[in-house]
Amino acid sequence: MALVRYLNPEHIYIRCPLDSKEAALEWLALAVAQSGIGIPQETLRDKLFEREETMSTGIGNAVGVPHTLVPGIKGLHVYVATLKQPIPFDSVDGKPVVVLIGLFGDPDTPGLSLGALATLGRILRDERFVDALWKASTKEQVYRLLREREGKRES
Amino acid sequence: MWALVYILNEDRYLTEVLEALLEIGVPGASILDSVGMLQFLSQEIPIFAGFRSILKGSKPYNKIILSVIRDQELLQQALATIDLTVGGIENGKRGILFTLPVEHLIGPGPETLGD
User: Fold this and answer.
1) CATH number of the domain that A120 lies in?
2) What is the Cα Rg of chain A in Å?
3) Confidence band for A2, pLDDT divided at 50, 70 and 90
4) Cα torsion A18, A132, A34, A10: sign
5) B37 — contact with chain A (CB < 8 Å)?
6) Is A56 part of the contact surface with chain B (CB cutoff 8 Å)?
7) Which of A52, A69, A145, B4 lies 20 to 30 A from A3 at CA?
8) In B, which residues are within 8 Å of A67 by CB distance?
9) Which residue ranges form the domains of chain B, and what is each CATH number?
10) B3-14 pLDDT, tens per residue?
């Protein structure tokens, strides 16, 4: 799936100074609300925390993929944040998280979010790729890394 | 010759559907247990766990009825019978029914399949 199609380069945030999972989710809700998605911050926040209660979105390999489906959102919106320092995220492998990829989708078209999650699950298994994302110093670098990686299948 | 495949997501209708098929002259079928892709992923793969909420109320497992039917008239009758038995497949969201042409059949014929 062409994930970057749903990623506005302006929605990439570099070396965010967050210190906990809760702070990260709060910050993400605020960033998404302020980006003009048309959903209040509180709604986004509640939906993100509700999703985390089901099971952590710390998918391992130092990546968190907080995501939710929110009525009123059209299509799919992707947000990427690299963190200044690793933060605990209740990840499946116990590792702290250094990269966050947020997905916000339309509940009427869950297939879009499913496809995006499947793509993320595939490309984020590569530790070197995650490390490269974390160490990227500009939005453009992160965007380029994602664009190049999503088209490649592991051998 | 046709393969009839009905993925029934409410197994309380299984017996009724099989009995109805027998009554109209479909002599056999195989019954398989199955699970939907999203159901499986949401239970087994953490990244998809959030989709459990949109599956609330749906059954975790399906039954697949697989039958080979030689006669097209009987096939049409079988489709109508299944639809009637489950109270409307589409309206009741009671699974997916489709048919496929069968080019070759090796082994027992449709008359004995599933026996």
Assistant:
1) 3.40.930.10
2) 14
3) confident
4) positive
5) no
6) yes
7) A52
8) 50
9) 2-101 (3.30.70.120)
10) 999 999 888 999
CA quadruple B22, B27, B33, B38: dihedral positive or negative?
negative
CA gap B12, A70 in Å, rounded: 33
Residue A155 falls inside a structural domain = no
Tell me if A83 is assigned to some domain: yes
CB contact under 8 A, A57 and B50: yes
Residue type for position A98: V
Helix ranges restricted to H, B1-115: 14-24, 37-44, 72-85
> Which helix (H) or strand (E) segment is A31 a member of?
helix A21-34
pLDDT, tens only, A11-39: 999 999 999 999 999 999 999 999 999 99
Residue A91 touches chain B, beta carbons under 8 Å: no
> For residue A140, what pLDDT band results from cuts at 50, 70 and 90?
very high
Task: Indicate yes or no: CB of A120 within 8 angstroms of CB of B52.
Answer: no
Could you tell me if residue A44 is inside a domain? yes
Q: How many domains does chain A have?
A: 1
Which residue range is the domain that position A94 belongs to?
A: 3-150
Residue B54, pLDDT > 50, answer yes
Please tell me the distance from the alpha carbon of residue A26 to that of residue A48, in angstroms, as a whole number. Answer: 9
